Amino acid sequence: MTLRLGESTVEHLPGDVERPAYDRAAMRRGVVHLGIGAFHRAHQAAVFDDLLGRGDMRWGVRAASFRSPATRDAMAPQDGLYSLVVRDGAEERVRVIGAVADVLLAPENPSELVKALAAPETHLVTLTVTEKGYKLDPATGALIEADSDLASDLAVLHAPKTAPGFLVAALALRRERGLAPFTAISCDNLPENGRRLEAAVLAMAGRRDPVLRDWIAEKGAFPQTMVDRIVPATDAADIERLAARTGLLDRAMVKTEPFTQWVIEDRFAGERPDFEAVGVQVTADVAPWETAKLRLLNGAHSGIAYLGALAGIEFVDRFVMADTGSAFVEALWDEAEATLAPPAELDIAAYRRALMARFANAALGHRTRQIAMDGSQKLPQRLVASLVARQDRGLASPMTSLAIAAWMRWQAGRCDDGTRHAVDDPLADRTAAIWAAAADPDDAARRLLAIEAIFPPALAGSPAADEIAGWLGELVRNGAAATLAAAVRDQRP
Ligand code: CS2
After folding, report:
1. What would the mean pLDDT of 296-312 be, rounded to a whole number?
2. How confident is the model over 132-177, as pLDDT tens digits?
3. Nearest residue CA, atom 9 of ligand 1?
4. In 3-state terms, what secondary structure has residue 187?
5. Residue 356 in contact with residue 319, Cβ under 8 Å?
6. Band of residue 493 on the pLDDT scale cut at 50, 70, 90
7. Mean pLDDT within 254-277
8. Residues 6+ apart with CB under 8 A from 402
């Protein structure tokens, strides 16, 4: 039987595997992370590990899961240790990360998590709770009161259920105890993620106690961030391959690319690490970075996800290795780029070249279906924003429209070869009902465009709406592969 990675076995690892060079027993726990998935383990946790490695022992992480016990159950027997496997083509580097002290399961013991958040040594709270975890209506920015977890947190907060609920409960406790608030750092791919988190927390706190609300507004800090690293879901083959290489079983490993970027707005409520020393950019204005990343990287990702998954292309690298795939991505980027005001330090041409190479990293195994989930939450900032900005200037957006139409087709639950797939999206029931009621693809497109949480009302009846409806008809009639090929051909001069 293969031994499990953990404190007592880490010394058995082969010499080329990096491991924590600091004394984990001396690690304090200055960070609480909400939503420990693969992304956190490959991104922020690696940064805190770097800080610990430099001898600043304040930045160990207590992490929490909101739903499944899977991560806790994988990490607890490993004393929180896990491998970060960085793949670049044929090269692979393995590094054991020691920054995660423990993992709490929020629904199992909510008061333990509130206690951790309210602890005097907690200075930073980082969040990766996905777009839907903020419980805000994307169109209005108001709390989604129909959400049952949110309604429960608005009624009583002794056992919170939502991320904003936990933050408010803990901030109330900190205020009672005379402690400063922590800095709450949203690391989700949302525009103005810090403002949104702040809005959710203030709205909830205001219902409970206006004095608490004002205290948070005055003393709290919710910096904006841009986070970037491609982190495909780990599968059983990855775990076996790593065990064969290291001799130890690691059920919490994550695989990723060499590239990593974290830009944080310079806005902190109290103590913070020397982020700059470990490559994090701390800056006055994150928005231009965020917008460029959302519209270029994530916009292309979503287009690739829906067109690729419909056409039966399993991986992102397979999609961009085909001429039609890379031509589509370049044309989509031309459309998006025209809507950006990038920071002076960001060379968009170089960024696009690097991005295409990142997408083409065949060692990652990044599944189009992984990216396809939660489209209703992702589309507005990734694709619709560019489309609307272009329409305002009288510009057509054929590739952006095609990507949006492919999302619509995906929501129907059938791939081009006729196989059915589950639509993993908070609005899946609504979009399925639209497809069931629609007379034809044109009608389906019009009804889907009327979902105000995704599309601004001004889009209805516009030339862009006609273009989307036209593409949807073609996708249904001819399939994604043929539609994509024709679209790219028509683009060429
Ligand atoms: C992806 C992102 O799954 C998705 O929606 O577009 O997770 C993407 O890989 C990251 O934002 C890269 O930084």
Report:
1. 98
2. 999 998 778 899 999 999 999 999 999 999 999 999 999 999 999 9
3. 230
4. coil
5. no
6. low
7. 97
8. 303, 307, 328, 471, 483, 484, 487
Report the atom number in ligand 1 closest to the C-alpha of 228. 13
- Residues in contact with ligand 1 by the CB-under-6-Å rule are 189, 228-230, 297-298, 301, 370-371, 378
Q: Phi/psi of residue 62, each to 5°?
A: -100, 125
| Contact in structure between 290 and 298 (CB atoms under 8 Å) | no
**Helix (H) or strand (E) segment spanning residue 316:** helix 316-321
Question: Largest Cα–Cα distance in the chain?
Answer: 68
Q: Rounded to whole angstroms, how far apart are CA atoms 8 and 470? A: 61
With the most atoms of ligand 1 within 8 angstroms of its CB, the residue from 190, 226, 230 to mutate is: 230
Model confidence at 50: pLDDT above 80: yes
Structure tokens at 121: 């040594």
Rounded Cα distance between 166 and 132, Å, is 16
Residues with Cβ within 8 Å of 323's Cβ and at least 6 positions away in sequence, in order, are: 488
Q: How far apart are CA 448 and CA 430, in angstroms?
A: 9
Question: Considering only CA atoms, which residue is closest to atom 13 of ligand 1?
Answer: 228
Structure tokens at 131: 């777009």
Mean pLDDT, rounded, for 49-70: 97
Q: Are 447 and 456 in contact (CB under 8 A)?
A: no
Q: Please tell me what DSSP assigns to residue 18.
A: B
Q: Which domains does the chain have, with CATH numbers?
A: 3-283 (3.40.50.720), 287-491 (1.10.1040.10)
Residue 83 neighbours by CB under 8 Å, 6+ apart: 5, 17, 94, 95, 96, 97, 242, 246, 250, 252, 253, 254
77 CA distance to ligand 1 middle (Å): 29
The DSSP H or E segment spanning 484 is helix 480-491
Q: Give 270 or 368, the one with higher predicted confidence.
A: 368
Tokens at residue 84, please?
């970060």
CA distance 74 to 251: 5
